[in-house]
Amino acid sequence: MDYKRDVTFPYSPSHHLFTLFSHNQKLQKKMLLYSSPSLNSFLFNSNSNSNFLSKNHKSLKSAPQTLRVVNNNDVDAFTEKSGYLFKLSSSEVDSLNDYDLKKIAAIYKRKPLILLRRLFQIGSTFGRWLAARYIDSITEKSDLMFKIRAAELRQILLELGPAYIKIAQAVSSRPDLIPPSYLDELSLLQDRIAPFSTEVALNTIEQELGLPIDMIFSEISPEPTAAASLGQVYQARLRSNGQVVAVKVQRPGVQAAISLDILILHFMAGVVKKAGRFNSDLQAVVDEWASSLFREMDYIKEAKNGLKFRKLYGGIEDVLVPYMYLENTTRKVLVMEWVEGKKLSEVKDLYLVEVGVYCSFNQLLEYGFYHADPHPGNLLRTYNGKLAYIDFGMMGEFNQEFRDGFIEACLHLVNRDFDALAKDFVTLGFLPPTSDKEGVTKALTGVFQNAVAKGVSNISFGDLLGNLGTTMYKLKFQIPSYFSLVIRSVAVLEGIAIGFDPNYKVLGSTYPWIARKVLTDSSPQLRSSLQALLYEKGVFRIDRLESLLSESLRARTEKALVKSQLEDNDSKVAVKQILSFTLTEKGAFVREILLQEIAKGLDAFGLATLDYLTSMANTSIPFAASSSSSMTEEDMMNLRTFRRLMLILSGFQKNGGSPVELKRTVPSKNQNMHSEEASLIFYQFPSAEEILPILSVIPELPPELQQQLLLLPADLAGRLISRVTARTIRRVFL
């Protein structure tokens, strides 16, 4: 995909780009300047030389690394209220490039006053707000003051800075959990945060890239186009190739502020765990989140993440991943392709939500490299109808073992195999290997039975987590630190979708792909799981295979995410999809199972036919003794399975499109019961008139699949002959 071609503009970029050297008086009065005797009293004037800006930025490179506020009225709330956190030496700042709790603790051990001041600021700020909420409740003004308190909470989070804003961003994506007034206010934290000084931003660009601004960009916007918790974005034009790009500049002081807040949160997590007797290692969860946050503050890592994300998922239909200019990127400055669009949450495009779900499925279950911060501010609908991902700072890795374990857990949950689900929780690290499996199975049955009974399309990920909450505490569940970002990613995605459709269920939308992956994946772990699922205690569960096949047919590919209702219900299309799947290399494992069960069914069908003919012959002969059925209970089960398979392969045409479940009979010495049931099943098989039209799909298959299909009769005949021979030997000689 040509990233240059896919960028669209509703208007000329020059409308809000300005030539770098056309001095803007408004810009000159809204600045944070580095402390420097030569600049403290200096003001821009419109008659100055056009090279003034770049020259003076050069002179700033040797200035001390301490920020001074020129005009408090123009300073963002974070800098104004928490600017004291920035006072770290260059060596201390450099030591915070990567998350290391010991280094952070060592720094603030030498700065106890800053630590105490921060604790007092956090406690007093939230304390005043909680006190106001309490007064509202006792004076019965809660409803009246609700919106006001929501706005106050947003302002508090802005003052406290990025760590708290990040937490709020995650919460703001859950309209099913947060009241509307709070949701509206917290949503403003996604990309509408007060920016810091453009002068500081331009100076940072020059310091980081080591070149004057005019040598890098021919144009740059006078004000940031968006400001977030960690940085702000400018629109610019590269001088080297004329491409319009987004330039993200890191907010000054974020590393110092976040490191101290994480130290405090880590300590509080330990206190809460002990006081509340939490089973989960809350400090490990904080560490996992902190590590991802520190990686997010390294824009070189973000650029590499973006390039990897583009390589893996940029080819998906209607997904746009902007190009990263790694050569123009440093730890604090990121240059990437400019993307025009609106937030996905504002346009309510259900098609793109499905595209996002499909893309997330690929991230979590195919490659394990996933976007861990998919809040609405990071997902755009471009003006040419694509879903654009624009932030790659917070990414997660999901290794193969855990991916397979997650798929197995979903599979066992939907099929109500709670015993296997308990084992999955051990594999995923939720439970220790020494857990009481029987007790866990019983508890999980109680928690999930009702939720799953509604059907997979009605299972809410949020509800599952909520229902599991009490049980997790009782059974000493632990949420592994690696899984916290996965849960957040899935929960946020469902939250965005719920904003469009209150009945949306992300698991219901994802399960068809899970079913398809289980049926097609070559992973030994998943194949073993599929084998165990389909053969419960040695008995083939045709209902489970039927469910997996029907669900997998609902899995929309990236080339056809939306199909017409007519096509979805067309039995010929269903049969064609089943054949196309089972005849490919990916479907070899399922094809082997189908051939094995069809051979058993044909054998049982032959016995039933023989019994039927014998019975008919006896009825035509006067005084002939009645003959008993030669079919065993196993033969009857195989016959039932064969009937279901024929209904599947005939497109579910019989009985209004859904095969009728025939209950298994209790083994009986009276073989006449088998004869009667066999006769009933015999008459319920699809007729030739129903099967023959379906054969018309064969010419529509690709030549290589037709060739594979021609090999099946001989394979099936060999299996059937082997089975008949083995049974004959058993009955004659044993």
From TrEMBL:
The protein's matches in InterPro entries, at most eight in alphabetical order, are given as: ABC1_dom, Kinase-like_dom_sf, Prot_kinase_dom, UbiB_kinase
CDD domains found in the cross-reference section:
ABC1_ADCK3-like
Q: Which domain of life is it from?
A: Eukaryota
Q: Which Pfam families match?
A: ABC1
- Please state every residue range assigned to the domain named Protein kinase: 219-540
An example Gene Ontology molecular-function term: protein kinase activity
Q: Which family does it belong to?
A: Belongs to the protein kinase superfamily. ADCK protein kinase family.
Q: What is the designated name of this protein?
A: Protein kinase domain-containing protein
Species annotation: Populus trichocarpa
